[in-house]
Amino acid sequence: MIDKGTWTVKKGLAEMLKGGVIMDVTTPEQAKIAEEAGAVAVMALEKVPADIRAAGGVARMADPEIILRIMDAVTIPVMAKCRIGHFVEAQILEAIGVDYIDESEVLTPADDQHHVNKHAFKVPFVCGARNLGEALRRIAEGAAMIRTKGEPGTGDVIEAVRHMRQMNKEIRRLQSLREEELMAAAKEMGAPYELVLEVARTGKLPVVNFAAGGIATPADAALLMQLGADGIFVGSGIFKSGDPMKRARAIVAATTHYNDPHVLAEVSRDLGEPMVGINISTLELVERMQERGW
Amino acid sequence: MLALQGAFREHRLVLERMGIKSREVKKAEHLEGIDGLIIPGGESTTIGKLLVDFGIREPLLRLIEKGLPLFGTCAGMIVMAKEIVGSRQPRLGVMDIVVRRNAFGRQVDSFETDLEVKGIEGGPVRAVFIRAPYIEAAGEGVEILAEFAGKAVMARQENCLATAFHPELTSDNRIHQLFIQMVEDYLRKK
To answer: In terms of CATH architecture, what is B8-189?
Structure first.
């Protein structure tokens, strides 16, 4: 008797990724560089978020051919993105055998009210969140891993920091409440009561929580790790920089040694040009990907 | 606890439950004074690379040579293997086994099952296999402790213990107990 696609198995893969860096890649060559640099997984995309932002229009799931070629190129797990609420894109990604699906605000949402029912899948899902309520709604829908949204494709770390602090602040607040106050807190956050009880009891999210959205340097990665992230997603930050291999290796080392300023100083030296970046305060509200998700 | 990457916290929680003290090893100097080392699940390519980059591999090999007990789960088992099918990734290579990575398939094929383990009493253990490897071939000094679907998934060779699955993801301490027994035997001899 074997059981596939159980909660333990879905959540378990995220546990194995902890302390690691997941890198956005668009070609098999980039995937190989990421693996060689020590990435724990890659996110297979048609365009990195910075290019999606620049191109405008509707951003959809990548062509399965691109994802399959990347899956052939590396031995580490391969993730891919579907649009928010687009459960058929998710079915396609499961059918081609990706290891994790990111129901992502980086793509143009397909549903303005509902997310995918992630319990219906054997493949595990990761979802973005800006606060605890959003994280717990996604977990209730079946997400086995959470990441901060940050503001993708900007190279500006401020939003990832804001979301990580926000989530941890809300967790600490729940721990300080009396039990009869937790129902009101659940209502206020729009989060399922059972999960609110669990977080108040354990003092942590029920699943792994990575940082994402705007991380561009080893110091950014270590900052989010010190703020309590379980691991790091780097999107445009690596392959939009001057020396991707060197920067990728440096971010991997910084994520392991996030508490050791000497190592951080060493790996931050002579990395070449970082991605150019967009200051978040220059973005109009409608241009902010983090506003997507319900 | 080798804490370069992966589920090292889960192993520490198991040891804590058992009343055993542990600490994280991220650099060579952290190896000093340890009585045993666990290599957790994670990505074997990442862990192997960081072992080399941060100069832990050589001093650790010297300790293992002197009898330091070593326990690897999943990625840990791959890092301990002498041969990895189709890969030249960095490793310790201290166990005379040939392992195949992602041998049961990709994540959608990951599974859990009940598994009988040689030397563990009280019924089968719940074994969680996540993109797991198996042992394709083993040398003479290697004792196979568990098999699933005809594939070896747990083995011991002198001071090295390895599982393809994740005992740290369950509430069952028995496999960790087996390793602690190895540590106690080592300390008695020392």
So the answer is: 3-Layer(aba) Sandwich (3.40)
